[in-house]
Design a protein that fits this description.
The protein is of the alpha+beta class and 545 residues long. The protein is built from ten helices and 29 strands. This is Endonuclease/exonuclease/phosphatase.
Amino acid sequence: MHGWNRLTAFLLFVVAIPAAADCSRGGTAPIADLRAGVVAENGSVTVDGIVTGVFLGRNRLGGFYLQDDRQPPSGLFVYAPRLGPGNLRPGQRVQVEGRFVRFHGRPQVSRIDTIRDCGYAGRAEPVAVRLPEDAGRLDALQGVKVRFPDALTVTGNYELGRYGSLRLSSGGRLLRTGAPGSGANAHADRQIVLDDGSYRAEPDPIPYLDAQGTRRLGDTVQGLTGILTHAFGAHRLHPTREPSFIAANPRPEPPPAAPAPLRVSTLNVENYFLTLGQRGARSQAELQRQRGKLAAVVRGLDADVLALTEVENRREALTDLVRQINRGLPQGQRYAAVAHPDSGTDAIQVALLYRPERLDLVMTAADVDPVHNRAPVLGWFRASAGGPLLGVAAVHFKAKVGCPDTGDIDRGQGCWNRLRTNQARSLLEWIDSLRRDGAPVVIAGDINAYAAEDPLDLLRAAGKTNLAGRDLRPSGRYTYVFHGEAGQLDYLLAAPAVAKRVTAAGVWHINADEPPFLGYSGRRPASGPWRSSDHDPVWVDLHWR
C-alpha cells in the first residue's frame, strides 16, 4: 500500500480506537511555539488540536486548520492534499505527525506521517473581532477561528471572478476624496478579504453571487465566521459557515424621464475600438457585446447631450458607435456626433453626441494646446424651439497611471497631478476665449482627479460647481472604484448660474459597483447596461429655455 493510502486507511481505522489509547502520549509541540518560531523548521513534529476548518477536496486549500484550547488560542494549517474531505470534521480532536515548515511565511505542518483521531471535542468558539479596534490583533490570530459580529460592507469585487475573493470593510464603504488622510493607508485597519477556501484562479462557479449573478459593492454581510490567515499581502478569512449577504445596494433604475428639461450626461465607453486586440475588444464577439451594452446605457440615460470619453481616435470608430446606438432608437431620439479634426495624438479621443431633433448645433471647437494629450471638444447648442445658448465641453484629463520616475510623480494626489492641474488651467482659458454672448459652458467628462485635489480646487476657484453634488449624499458621490476605494473622477461642472437651473441630477451606478467579469470582455458578460464600462455616468437635468 502506498503512503497516502496507508494514511487514509490508518485514519479510518483509528476512528474506532478509544481516544486515550492513541493520544495520551506526550512530546507534542504547542501550536503557539510553532507559530512563534521556537521550534526549528524542517524538523519532525507532533501537534494536537481541535479541527476548526476543513478545506479538503478538489480545488480547495488542500488541508485543514487545527487550534489549541488555550486562551488566547493559537491555530495552524495542516497541509494534507490527498486526504479525502469526508475523513475530518470540525470539532474533532486529532494528533498529527509531520514536518514543520513555513510556506510563504505561513507556518504549517506538511509531509504528514500520521493522523490520529482523538475523538470529538466540540466545535471551537470563534474569537470575536471588530475592526478597526482589533486590527492590531490580526497577526496573532492567524490560523484561528474568528467571527466578525458587526456588519461588513463589500468594498471591492475586482478579484471575485479571478480568485473568488471580496474586499470587505467595517463602518461602511471606503471613500476617496483626495483630501489629506483619505488615502489607502487611512483605511487599512478597516479592511479584511473574504476568500473562498481556495487560492485557485478563475473559480467555477464564482462564489458569493446573488440571484442576478452579481455581488455589488455596498452589499453587506454580518456574523462572518471562518479561519483567519494572511496571504498575498492581505489578511483573509476562509469561511467555515456560508456567508449571508444583504443586498444593501441593489441595481438602480435608470434616471427618471424628464421630457421638458435638457439632460446632459457623461459617458465613458471604456475603450470603444474598432481595431481589435488593442485597448478595447479582442474579438468581434466582444465588440458586439460592447455595442449592446453601450446602446442599453444610452437608452437608459435618455440624454440630449452626451460627453463621450475613451473612443478610439479614428473617425470610423465614432461613426460606427453612433450608428450602433441609433439602430434601436426612434427617429426623434437619434444622435449625431461632434468631433474635431484636431483630436490630439492619443490612442483615444473625446466626442459629443447630441439629438438634432431637440438641439441645434451652433459651433464646435477643440482645445489644441499641447498640454492636452486628448483635445477637449466644445459644442455650442440652442434648443430647436429657440432659447439661450449652452456650451458643453467634453474633456478627459491625464490618468494617474504610467507614472514617471522623476518630475510629476505621486505626491499624494497620484502622478501627473501637475499636468492635470495645467490642463484645467488651459481649459478655463480656452473656454473664456470662446465664450459667446456670455453663454455658460458645462465641463463634462473624466477629470481623473478626486474632489479635493488640485485640478478640482482650481476649477472651483474659477466658479465651477459640481452640478450633481446637490442631489447626492456624500456616500453616493463616486463614479469609479480603485483598490476598494470609491471616488468621483467624472464630473459635470458649470457656473452657479447653471446650477440654479438644475431640476434633477445624479450618478447612475451601473458600472463601478459591478464585478469586472460582467463586462464585455469578462468571463460572464451580463446583458443590459451592467458593467458596460468601469466608470459610472453622471447626468443632470437643466431647465433651459
